[in-house]
Amino acid sequence: MKKQLFEFVGKCFLAGIFLALMGFQQANAQQTITGTIVDELGQPIPGANIVIKGTTTGVVTDFDGNYSIEASPTDELVISYVGYTTQNIVVGSKTTINVNMELDQQLLDEVVVIGYGTAKKKDVTGAVARVSSESFANQPLTRVDEALQGRAAGVTVAKANGAPGAGIKVRIRGVNSITGNNDPLVVIDGVLGGDLSTLNPNDIASMDVLKDASATAIYGVRGSNGVILVSTKKGSGRGKINVDYFTAISQVPDLLPTLADNVGEFARIENIRKLSIGQNPTFTDAEIADLEANGGTNYQDEILRTAVSKNLQISASGSEGKLRYFLSGNYRDEEGIVINTGYQQLSLRSNLDAQISDKLRVGLNIFGTRGEKKNNFEALGNGQGSLMYKANTWDPTTPIYDANGLYNRRSLRGIASLNLNPVLTLNETQASDVDERFSATLNTTYQFTDNFSYTMVVGAQVNNYNVQRYAVEGADDTPDANFSTNKYTAYQLSNIFTWQKVFSEIHDLKLTGVQEYSNSKNISNNYNADNLLLPNGFYFAETASGFSIGNNFGERELSSFMLRAEYILDDNLSITATGRYDGTSVFRPGKKWGFFPSVAAGYSIINPRNNSGYINNLKLRAGWGQVGNQGVGTYGTYANLGNNIYAYTGGAPSPGTFITSFANEDLTWETTSQTNVGIDLGFNSGRGSFSVDGYKKVTSDLLLNVPVSGTNGGGNVNKNVGEVENFGFDVALGYDIIQTKNLNWNSNLAVSHVKNKVTQLFDGLEQIDGQYQAPGGQARVVNIIQLGEPLGQLNGATFLGTWKSSEASAAAAFGKKPGDAKYLRDENGEIVFGAIGNGTPTLTWGFNNTISYKNWDINIFLNGSHGFDIYNLMQAGITGGAGDSRSFMAADQVNQWTPSNETDIPATVQLFNSSRYIEKGDFVRLSNLNIGYTFKDFAGLSNTTLKLYVGGQNLFLITDYSGYDPELSSRRGDQGNEDVAPGINVGAYPNPRTYTLGVKVGF
């Protein structure tokens, strides 16, 4: 019995061991695990890594995101891909494991472009601001520079006017130069000299703005105005196609109030004006009664319209093996809100990137665009103000057409504006500005060793800008025609050597050396044909009675060497030192070469990698550097000649030349030295970020035109004299206010404050007159440059109201009478002219909010500008009664001075340039409000999305300014640097209010 019991227990024991071994074997048995790795949109990710934790065993997903790996149930798979959060998954009993990767925003934001390379954000020592495509993805944009507005602290973006295709002014940390160019350097995919206005916003992956000299010194003589580094998109993953189409309806928010809407009062006031200057009244009582009964013509309303625009963007991106691609096309067709104006643009891009081998990578980017402005508003009839100015001052009692249906070319009574009918000018003018651009960039990187690599960037671009114009506003009302062509060609070769090594795990040293050469040529030709005998359009220019031609050529070369050292100690202390040596053909021997150094350091008091508290990042930064500005004409060191036709002997005229400026062999670049200190703060587990930078920059050796005495021939000569200072601070604050599964709210605030001051002029001068003249035939400049004051000083008389009846004798001493305008005078009784305002903003800000709830998303973007004045010469023309606009058109003129109603509204002719027309320009604008809804797996198609969105731009404007828009300014021909004459409005094209409706499809 015992024996049987023993055998039974033995068998059970052996069976238990066997079963245990079987279980152990099954637990460790290798099985095939398959699956697909997709991104946040459900698109397959090729090249994702799947590794068994603790081993070197792993595989990579194929083109369709699929993988297959042998693993046991107890193994843990580690799935990773650049830019996404790494996921760990235990195999268990599963044989199929599909993974949806989530974007790791911290990793994506961690690397920024710093020029000739990249750096981790936490290691950056200079002042660098990043604007990613995500921040403006929900704003329907047609211009890239609009994406910068209010989104990067220290960057001021202002529209010149509201015309389609109009220029936009970008300034980084104030204005440095009085006569030179203040535009920042734009670098697109490593090629210098790009133009933001021509790019398709859909092509942009990110824009990194280098603001201080410690960051911009790597660009030497071209970096004084800051640098904008644009990185265009690259393809990855399974092929994707995106289509974005939106249409926009635009209109002027409000018309300016004028007497064109009260034409009976206009006629009465005109009669009073005529009597005041000793002339007979223009209108009879019967004519006034008829005007009150039937109304007149509001020419402001006649030249404005509701405009419809269309914008189509298509892109295809992805990867095929070792080849990545991004292809895009953009077509925009914009009607202007001014009749017979508009803009069309077509652009195409191809970005290819191939990993030829483990060591060699080659990229080729090709971009082409063609833009055409129709009746460029900025160039039409600006001698006496723009066409908006003329429309607002035109005679409302003269209809557009006569009884025969022909244009009334001038005022029938010779009142109000004496210019040509603005409706005629716009409808009959045929002007076409065509801008054609082509650029190509070849980028090749070879990794010699793990520590050493070489990159070659070759870039070439060709720009053709052609203008053909037929205008009816010629001499004696006969049409003119003119044509100009400007061909710009440039190429660049950059050789970049990078060496990086980590010593003893705490010393990280990186050296970057650059040898660079660039060359550019500019060829321009033009002709003007005056008084066409056959008024049938541009192509009859040969019938003109007068011709003039012009030609110009310029070539520049720049050769450069740069060395940058980046040192990181124990992941806390970062030091960057840079030196760039530039040689330019613009200057004479002995002055061609300049050295531009910089040094910066940053120290992490709280390192985000080692701290998980509420304050998880605290970094201090400081830097100093010097950069240059070669913003002088290609042959600016030589004497310049002008040409004219003159009858020297009293007979037939013959051509001749004369000196306009003298040579200066000692001329060199302006130099800007800048000191920057900053603090970076991260908090609440990375949900919030805050940074503040304070800076001071001094631009010395300022380029100015110094007058030459008449005994030495007169004219002027370029010299390096003068100095300008800018000091201010930039603040950036970002926070994920709500961060849940279904609801997210991200806000970003960017604030910039800058104060500018002229600290030195030439020959002890304390003031230089500007070149911007007021319309009205009074020939007075409205801008000045003053020592000790900011650039942008507005010049004029101080308006004191009107002379009252009790001041009749005092007024008579100056030849005035009660009701006339009264101005501040000096001890000699002369009207005092001086600074009465400043057109340069001191504070700008932008507040961007992105809210998403399930499939809904909302973008709200507000921006503002403060601390500046507007010289409203448009209002002066409406009110002033002088020059070519001599009738009173202002709506408040009905309350003008009378003996029984002694107001401060003059009843007689007054000065255009006076403080009466200085207004505060401060404003707050709702720039964008966009609401969208996304359908996922649309129409039952996997990985297909459809988004519908509606929105508006410039929806409301809070301001005390009485004109169309305080952000707008206007230019009247060649009247000097726009930065020393900002905030002047002589009839800028209005900024429209726009409503958009669009659809995006991705599949």
3D structure, described in words:
With 1003 residues, the chain is mainly beta. It has a domain at 27-102: Immunoglobulin-like. The chain has 11 helices and 51 strands. It has a 22-stranded antiparallel β-barrel. The protein starts with a helix and ends with a strand. It is found in: Cell outer membrane. Belongs to the TonB-dependent receptor family. Keywords: Cell outer membrane, Membrane, Signal, TonB box, Transmembrane, Transmembrane beta strand, Transport. Residues 120-227 form the TonB-dependent receptor plug domain.
Class of secondary structure makeup: mainly beta
The CATH topology of the domain at 27-102 corresponds to Immunoglobulin-like
| Morphology | globular
Distance between the termini: 78 Å
Count of β-strands: 51
Helix count from the secondary structure assignment: 11
Mean pLDDT: 88
CATH class of the domain at 27-102: Mainly Beta
Largest sheet: 22 strands, antiparallel, barrel
Task: Provide the β-strand percentage band.
Answer: over 45%
Kindly report the oligomeric state of this protein: single chain
CATH superfamily caption of the domain at 27-102: Carboxypeptidase-like, regulatory domain
| CATH architecture type of the domain at 27-102 | Sandwich
Q: Low-confidence parts, pLDDT < 50 over ≥5 residues?
A: 1-6, 11-27
The portion of residues assigned to helices is under 10%
Alpha-carbon Rg, integer: 34 Å
InterPro entries: Beta-barrel_TonB, Beta-barrel_TonB_sf, CarboxyPept-like_regulatory, Plug_dom, Plug_dom_sf, TonB-dep_OMP_SusC/RagA, TonB-dep_OMP_SusC/RagA_CS, TonB-dep_rcpt-like
Protein name: TonB-linked outer membrane protein, SusC/RagA family
GO cellular component, one term: cell outer membrane
Keywords: Cell outer membrane, Membrane, Signal, TonB box, Transmembrane, Transmembrane beta strand, Transport
